[in-house]
Amino acid sequence: MALGVMHIRESTEALEQRVLHPLAARSSQTLGREVPEAPCSIRTVFQRDRDRILHSKAFRRLKHKTQMFIAPVGDHYRTRLTHSLEVAQVSRTIARALRLNEDLTESIALAHDVGHPPFGHTGEHVLDELSPIGFHHQKQGLRIVKTLEKLNLTVEVLDGMEGTTEQKPNFLTLEAQIVDTADRMAYLHHDVEDARRAGIMLDSDLPTEILETLGHTRHERLDRMVIDIVRHSLTAMESDEPRIALSSEIREAVMGLRQWMFDHIYLAPERLEQTENVRRVITALYEFYMKRPELLSDNLPETDPVERRILDYISGMTDRFAIEAYQAHLLPNTYQAFTVNRPYEGLS
Ligand code: MG
Predict the structure, then answer these.
(1) Per residue in 201-217, pLDDT tens?
(2) Cα(202) to centroid(ligand 1), Å
(3) I want to staple 72 with a disulfide (CB 3.0 to 4.6 A). Which of 14, 77, 313, 341 is the partner?
(4) Model-level pTM?
């Protein structure tokens, strides 16, 4: 029977009703958007959110933002864009295995890092110290999708992007919990690989307990984490407190790996040198735009105070844009001879 375009979304919603786990977020039962909208004839609300994020400017800028290495020259290093795609892939695998809403996990995963400033967490800390408003990438992500790009996303996607805090200790959906764990699994997994590629470490440098529990190769490690979270969550979803969780054995190994990466890679002396360079660039740009606010992008809301616009502008920069802005505004420029209308040319 031919399916009229008008009924495609309804049929997808009915399919969700039939095949998804009772605890899954159902697109037909969404908590909605801040500004109500007419439904799409083809896509569910969560599919629509995913497309909005994918088409946003903030998402495209992730291509040139630091994951672990600043503006990496090698083509195989992760950037925040490839990191987000890997988080989306891991999240979708887990969601599908658990019969949870894959479209919702994909939307949250693609959006989860759009608020990151240039130069990763170092850039984030420097901006937070400099600005009287304070800076956090998750809050900035929400500001981008709500105010700056006005994507009008669903409450469920915004909740996943917000993360958990002291005031908001829980996520609204299991799908958001999946992305939260998949993020950590993905970055630990690929940061080990990128650090190996860069010649900073060998797999065999990792502590034996971690290698034995998580696996000796990168394929083994990711596989083991994903299988563990699926297996353990299947049981945890049947309990009185349904949740997405790793077994305590794998969770401890993951925490151990995280700590090892901090001690040996993220906070290694060579990287701390880069931290100082990042601090210098971001601080200089911040002070420069305080003196020259007319040079801020005119796409930013004019009614916002200058501190707000500077924060939005600098945090929106990619690594390379920030470096270019620093070079253009804060280093002596080479003299550029006029190419046209040179009245004194040839006089001496
Ligand atoms: Mg992330």
Answers:
(1) 888 899 999 999 999 98
(2) 23
(3) 77
(4) 0.92
